[in-house]
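Our consortium's second objective concerns turning raw sequence data into structural hypotheses that experimental partners can test. To show how far this objective has progressed, the report includes one record in full. It was chosen at random from the queue rather than selected for favorable results. The single chain below, 322 residues long, was entered without modification.
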Amino acid sequence: MQETKSICIPEGSLYRTPENRSHLRSRRSLEDAMNAGAVLESMAVMCDCETMELTVELPDGIRGMIPRCECCAGEVKDIAVITRVGKPVQFRVMSLEGNIARLSRRAVQEDCMEHFISRLIPGDIIPARITHLEPFGAFCDIGCGIVSLLTVDRVSVSRISHPADRFRAGDLINVIVASREDSGRIYLTHRELLGTWMENAAAFTAGQTVTGIVRSVEDYGIFVELAPNLAGLAEPTPGVCPGDLCSVYIKSILPERMKIKLVLIDSWQEPIPHPELRYFIDTSSVRHMNRWQYSPDGSRKLIESVFEEAEEESLESAACVL
């Protein structure tokens, strides 16, 4: 089999590409892809709950089979197999005999781990797809179905009660490698891509009335999110609840104190529209970040992320393992 360069992107990213469609056009093109060692992607349409084999959609009446042991690298859990049904999976064709194609998702994941994930360091910017959401964070596919955790406190500077306030399952986003453990497990962060305080505040001017989302109601005031990385404070008002949409008047913007003073005009309850995230970094060309400072220069409080230190710690850990 010819050795090919590893492809490592979240599942669902290859499915509709012209190259992938070309590979899945016919039996002949599938044989060519097998001989080339190409990474393909198609829909898992069924799971045999006795054998835990996945059936994958293939051309010309060919039945694609991923045995349980080939469903993922490492320990295989039944729930991880069952939940792939109805979703795209990446695989290599290992054999094609008659109308049965034996496929391996595990081979793709192992290649991804060796040639991509094992080389990631804190500060690297990578694409990810949201797989599912929990109150404590969002699980993200960072390549070939390999999942890492983005904790809720690292989603944005503006505090949210649940990752569903920001994401939906299936969203394709960008993330930063926050840290990695000795075991190789990677944790992610996202807020550094959503702009600094000054970058976000530049969109607003004192004297404007704008819309926002109530994120927290405290005894001393109401925190209103104006943007995912920017919130202001309004005075206490009876009847206002977290999650309310609202209109607010901007009294003042104080960079040295990182404060935006607001007056609540009105609030109401209705479904919050799914937000469109704006990244302040061109992630198509910038693939690494050493340091990010959220707070303005001269501010009384310093809020920053320093990835050089985390990178050094990861390298030291790797040296200890070796």
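The partners drew two points from this record. The first strand starts at residue 40 and ends at 48. Helices lie at 18-23, 27-36, 78-82, 105-115, 197-201, 307-321. Both points have been shared with the crystallography group to help prioritize constructs.
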